[in-house]
Amino acid sequence: MSLIVKKFGGSSVANAERVFNVANRVIEDYKKGNDIVVVVSAQGDTTDDLIEKALEINPDGCSKRELDMLLSAGEQISISLLAMAIEKLGYPAVSLLGWQAGFKTDSNYSAARIKSVDPERIRAELDKKNIVVVAGFQGTNKFDDITTLGRGGSDTSAVAIAAAMNADLCQIYTDVDGVYTADPRIVKNAQKMNEISYEEMLELATLGAQVLNNRSVEMAKKYGIELEVLSSLEKKPGTIVKEYVSMEKMLIKGVAKDNNVSRISVVGLEDVPGVAFKLFNMLAAKKINIDIILQSVGRDGTKDITFTVPKDQRATTIDIINNAKQSLKFIDVFFDDNVSKISIVGAGMETHPGVAAKMFEALFDSDVNIQMISTSEIKISVLIDINDSEKAVNAVHSKFID
Amino acid sequence: MSLIVKKFGGSSVANAERVFNVANRVIEDYKKGNDIVVVVSAQGDTTDDLIEKALEINPDGCSKRELDMLLSAGEQISISLLAMAIEKLGYPAVSLLGWQAGFKTDSNYSAARIKSVDPERIRAELDKKNIVVVAGFQGTNKFDDITTLGRGGSDTSAVAIAAAMNADLCQIYTDVDGVYTADPRIVKNAQKMNEISYEEMLELATLGAQVLNNRSVEMAKKYGIELEVLSSLEKKPGTIVKEYVSMEKMLIKGVAKDNNVSRISVVGLEDVPGVAFKLFNMLAAKKINIDIILQSVGRDGTKDITFTVPKDQRATTIDIINNAKQSLKFIDVFFDDNVSKISIVGAGMETHPGVAAKMFEALFDSDVNIQMISTSEIKISVLIDINDSEKAVNAVHSKFID
Questions:
Q1: Closest approach of chain B CAs to the CA of A64, in angstroms?
Q2: Pairs of residues, one from chain A and one from chain B, whose beta carbons lie less than 8 Å apart
Q3: 3-state SS, residue B352
Q4: Residue B215's pLDDT is what?
Q5: What pLDDT digit, counting tens, does each position of A12-64 carry?
Q6: What proportions of chain B, in percent to the nearest 5, are helix, strand and coil?
Q7: Rounded distance between C-alpha atoms, residue A108 and residue B389, angstroms
Q8: C-alpha to C-alpha distance for B302 and B376, rounded to whole angstroms
Q9: Minimum distance, in Å, between the CA of residue B281 and any CA atom of chain A
Q10: Is residue A113 scored above 70 in pLDDT?
């Protein structure tokens, strides 16, 4: 008998038919004698509908405390419906809200972090042989006010329960049937992986593979929870995300493309110590997510710094920099939204020289110009023109994986 | 400075425009320096929409625990939207769910009774000068599970808060602008009352005046909370419901009509002691609400018992009686759905002889036949043909009030 935590997203419970599909998937494993905790998100477009209601009241943005109160009603609806469906099929179920399931968070409304999960109530319900349906995405803070974990937070809810209860497996059901070596919509030879390490998954998630929420992978890694990414519709094994064990031969695990990136160049900065620190410290204070950074060699007493940010932070970043023109002392600042980041990910890369060269060769052969390069122990990323992105992903995938 | 509890129903917060209307009404009294607690129901048809979702999952009826979990999401949406609207207008507000506002109930899901209200959190928010918006209709039981008070329960929520906090006034905002001497849609000379006692209001509510939920009036009476029934749209004083003080002259407070009634006759019962007890004890065990009872004088060793029940309990009642034919020993049972109960209500009635005669005279003058009569200290009811009901209400109203 195992304890299995399962997470289903909003599209998996979008209507009564799909709710029953989820109920059946859950019951299947329950009938085998397993203890089952199911975490669900709000139905289909519920969250968007609720946000719409809030915007009608205040288009300028409501208080986040009240927004969290509003949005958390979405999961309340989906958990009760799923519990009803399980009961209708003849099996015992009980739904629990975030606070009932013991989720304690900080008070960062709309993007709260889980501080602890007290699984006492969940355990009591499992002992009564109930299938326990838990509202993802939500908890309460020290004031007993409702908080939400931010979009995609239901993955994190599932992993947090799995960690707190030392579950045997945490299954994340999605629209896709696993983690692929590249986006199957772009690369026709993309292959599904049976296994991938936390680190590789983290790099792929960061790079826009959008299969798993990043925070959930970080938490799974921290507590050693084995994740399985699998299809909510087809019944077949998915991809297991687990501890990196050892790696005889270097293996490129995937090629990812991220178009949600803008390149910003600050030109003509004084070539003195502390300039980069001053710039990035200022941006960090405003919570700007910096990715690739490139600094030119100083010449004529000035230097240029180029870096990338998510597209939706580009305008803010430019404002921050322009407002600091006096203290930063630079000549001009430019940006380019028409860029794409292509990355290869694979544990063991650092012990295999020539990987970067092989990637650059693939791009050169396809006539793709590289604007920036960034490397880590298990990742190599390049910034290229957005119009070349699909061509580049296919070229790199062919070189390493096909 | 007073503490005022205000309650707004679902139609009062049905859309963004109406939510702002409520926000403005609330702010008006807040600006005068009062502490304000607002209790709201779910928006317009939200409850019906949620019930529809549940029926899609299980047309045979879901578990009531899960139904309460589902339905309570309705108020969660409306309280957060109202708090957002108040904030948008520049005033501080905080929304609280039933459990956050300290509502403890029994475990009778879907029709729970309030056991206690711990107003600690509400008081703390008032101390911070917040307008406190509380979800009506809901609480939690001793298992920390969500319960609902049943339809109309938001009135009770408001009165319970007023009682727990010793509020100066509890205002119930409705579609009508107060309590009338008769239904203004039927009797064109119906007059709005400035004041009415709890007892009179209870009789009127029972009689189908449908202005206030009965449980809320009972609770207000028990704790001596002054209620005001007033319009959510028009700004004018409503009707105050309060302790019956003293009554110099007899005053008929209202004429009510109730068409939700069926007459049942059990014919040819043995004329021996204990027959009526056996019959009504059996019906009470099945929770049938008996109203007027009439027993014929025994003749030929048999007697007949006639009584009224709500229309939706008529079929069950007939079944119960037929199933007990052996033990009850009667000849036949009949029913009539085409009846209406007309009542006059007024404290002090018992000390003024001739009131009943005056009522019967009005009916006689209008050629209305009386089928049954029932009297209490502050009420006289008659059962008549349903086709005569409007004529009868007008005739009686003219006689006593016009």
A1: 10
A2: 112
A3: coil
A4: 85
A5: 999 999 999 999 999 999 999 999 999 999 998 898 899 999 999 999 888 99
A6: 40, 25, 35
A7: 61
A8: 28
A9: 35
A10: yes
**How much is the pLDDT for A381?**
87
Position B248 scores a pLDDT of: 45
Q: How far is CA B36 from CA B10, B128, B181, B216, B231, in A?
A: 19, 12, 31, 19, 18
Q: Give yes or no for B362 touching A (CB within 8 A).
A: no
- Distance, in Å, from the CA atom of A255 to the CA atom of A182, rounded to the nearest integer, reads 5
Within 145-204 of B, beta carbons closer than 8 Å to A belong to 145-146
For residue B315, the surrounding DSSP H or E stretch is helix B314-323
Contacts of B53 in chain A (CB under 8 A): 16, 77, 81
How far apart are alpha carbons A148 and A157 in whole angstroms? 10
State the pLDDT at residue A208.
Answer: 66
What is the nearest CA distance from A171 to chain B, expressed in angstroms?
25
Which residues does B123 contact at the CB level (< 8 Å), separation at least 6? B165
ipTM over 0.85: no
Q: What are A384's two structure tokens?
A: 């290229």
With a pLDDT cut of 70, the percent of chain A lying above it is 93
A28-52 b/e (C-beta count within 10 Å ≥ 16 → b): ebbeeebbbbbbbbbbbebbeebbe
Please work out, in degrees rounded to the nearest 5, the angle formed at the alpha carbon of residue A212 by the alpha carbons of A208 and A218.
100
Q: How far from each other are the two terminal CA atoms of chain B, in whole angstroms?
A: 39
Q: Residue type at A30? A: Y
Cα(B61)–Cα(B70) distance, rounded to whole angstroms?
13
Q: Tell me the pLDDT tens digit for each residue of B369-384.
A: 888 888 777 788 889 9
Examine the pLDDT at A250 and tell me if it is beyond 70: no
Residue type, A124: A
Q: Which of A16, A67, A144 minimises the CB distance to B56?
A: A16
Asked if B313 and B283 touch (Cβ cutoff 8 Å), the reply is no
Q: Are B201 and B247 in contact (CB under 8 A)?
A: no
What are the C-alpha distances in Å from A355 to residues A250, A344, A345, A381, B119?
A: 9, 9, 11, 12, 66
Is the CA virtual torsion B189, B190, B196, B197 positive or negative? positive
Q: What residues of B are in contact with residue A80 (Cβ under 8 Å)?
A: 54, 66-67, 69-70, 73
Which residues, in sequence order, are CB contacts of B111 under 8 Å at separation 6+?
B148, B149, B150
Which residues of B, range 59-118, sit inside 8 Å of A by Cβ?
60, 62-63, 65-67, 69-70, 72-74, 76-77, 79-81, 83-85, 87-88, 93-95, 97, 100
Q: What is the pTM of this model?
A: 0.77
Distance, CA of A395 to CA of A255 (rounded, Å) = 10
Quickly state the pLDDT bin for B357 (edges 50, 70, 90): confident
**Spatial contact of B59 and B174, defined as CB atoms under 8 Å apart:** no
